[in-house]
Amino acid sequence: MEAKIPDEVRAICKQLKARGHEAYVVGGCVRDLLLGKEASDWDVTTDARPAEVQKIFPRVIPTGIQHGTVTVLMGKKQFEVTTFRGEGAYTDGRRPDAVEFVRDIAADLARRDFTVNAIALDPDDGRIIDPYEGQKDIARKVIRAVGVPLERFREDGLRVLRAARFTATLEFDLDSETERAIGPSLDVYRKVSQERVRDEWVKAMKARRPSRAFDVMRTSGILDVTCPEMMEGVGMEQNKWHAYDVWRHGMECLDGCPGDPILRVAAMLHDVGKPRSRAFSDKTNDWTFYDHERIGAEIAEPICTRLRFSNDERARIVHLVRNHLFHYTSEWNDATVRRFIRRVGKERLEDLFALNEADVRAKGRDATPDLSALTSLKEHVARVIAAGDALSTKDLAINGRDLMTELGLAPGPILGKILSALLEEVIADPAKNTHETLLELARKMKS
Ligand code: ATP
Ligand code: MG
Fold it and tell me: For residue 36, what pLDDT band results from cuts at 50, 70 and 90?
């Protein structure tokens, strides 16, 4: 097993030991090693103080000296070397106010969050230090806090969310006492910055089934703090098309939507507008959700802003929620498809198709969901794109500069408006996409 540890990490530990120090790999990488998984990053822990670590290695970055962490550069790679430490007092529910270095590895492991993350391994001789029975919990597939769960969760508000996230990424269950400690720790969780929460969401999205994490967040109360909008769909019955309530449908769609974390956030939120648009129809004797995609986009936007997703990420999520609903039929002609592509944007079609497929599958009604409409739409879209007709104002045979020089228009929003109107004409009839025809049309629009 130690054979999988990178040479650079072995070299770092060897050099520390040659100077009379202890050195171990520790934390997530040991856990992943024991699970036979690829570790994402390698952390080394040592009794050497940061100043000594800096002296031993020629290329270092003093990443977090006050927290005992030095980044050692080996070739192009970076490794964090952290001095054994205990934990000082917390006032913000997040970072200890001061760190206290400790003498032995067991004391360092004691401050770590979960037993599966509190195992150290000496890469030299393969010795494992596991005072909290992390290996046993790995075998049982259990996330269990080191020490008293309630104390550990109240020290650092992020830990409850890490617990939820690990249930998904590791596909482990929460130990029951650990799970029970989440509720009484939510006042501390509340203080965690939204960026940290978002980072955990994104990490959870890399799991095979991220819904495990969000189900823990739902039942434990974490989501009441972070995203009450999602809670509105819990237990909300839909209509004859759906086997699941709004919440479960969102979770099934999330799990069934492969792709990057941002697409998966959109899949999770795609029906977030349903609870606020639900109405009973006497005509169909069933529930309806008119306009839920528009209402959903309005709800998703502030959620993304609050969680500090970047402007691009937010735009992508909101756009997918806004456009997730479409019903392709044989009545769609080429112009309908061109309009669809224009609205969605060529570069976002693939996301939308992936989301739609997951959405259809997540209805849970049929053993073999009917994807024929989606397949036909994809084919029709491919045909229309291959035809090469204009789909955006950039594809027009005229541009803003032409409008200014030939029609004497001044720069300003009017140019965009005219180009947009011209595109409408060309989408309806691609034959109009010539310089002369468009100029003539623009002249009429001007007057
Ligand atoms: P991954 O990198 O796969 O997300 P990880 O367990 O490596 O998971 P990191 O955030 O990289 O998580 O942290 C490395 C180690 O530091 C953890 O394994 C754990 O031992 C410790 N640790 C990280 N965050 C906390 C925390 N909030 N409270 C206590 N210990 C923590
Ligand atoms: Mg890690």
Answer: very high
Pocket around ligand 1 at a 6 A CB cut-off: 27-28, 40-41, 43, 112-113, 117-118, 156, 158-159, 162, 203
Ligand nearest to the backbone CA of 82:
1
Q: What is the pLDDT of residue 334?
A: 96
Nearest atom, ligand 1, residue 156 CA: 27
Q: Which residue carries 């609205």 as its tokens?
A: 343
Q: How far is the CA of 69 from the centre of ligand 1 (A)?
A: 14
91 pLDDT above the threshold of 80:
no
Question: Which residues, 6+ apart, have CB-to-CB distance to 196 below 8 Å?
Answer: 94, 158, 161
The protein residue with its alpha carbon nearest to ligand 1, atom 18, reads 27
> Between the CA atoms of 241, 229, 224 and 280, what dihedral angle is there, to the nearest 10 degrees?
-50
Query: What's the CA gap between 4 and 32, in Å, rounded?
Result: 11
From the alpha carbon of 27, which atom of ligand 1 is closest? Answer: 18
Rounded to the nearest 10°, the torsion over CA 295, 296, 299, 301 is -110
3-state secondary structure 361-400: HCCCCCCCCCCHHHHHHHHHHHHHHHHCCCCCHHHCCCCH
Q: What is the pLDDT of residue 14?
A: 97
Task: Give yes or no for a contact between 372 and 341, defined as CB atoms under 8 angstroms apart.
Answer: no
Q: Give the residue, by CA position, lying nearest to ligand 1 atom 24.
A: 113
The ligand 1 atom at the shortest distance from the C-alpha of residue 29 is 7
Mutate which of 113, 144, 165 for ligand 1? The one with the most ligand atoms within 8 Å of its CB, which is: 113
pLDDT, tens only, 137-195: 999 999 999 999 999 999 999 999 999 999 999 999 999 999 999 999 999 999 999 99
What per-residue confidence (pLDDT) applies to 92?
A: 57
Q: What is the pTM of this model?
A: 0.93
Distances (CA, A) of 8 to 14, 83, 249, 348, 409: 10, 18, 46, 41, 65
Q: Which of 63-77, 294-308, 328-342 has the lowest mean pLDDT?
A: 63-77
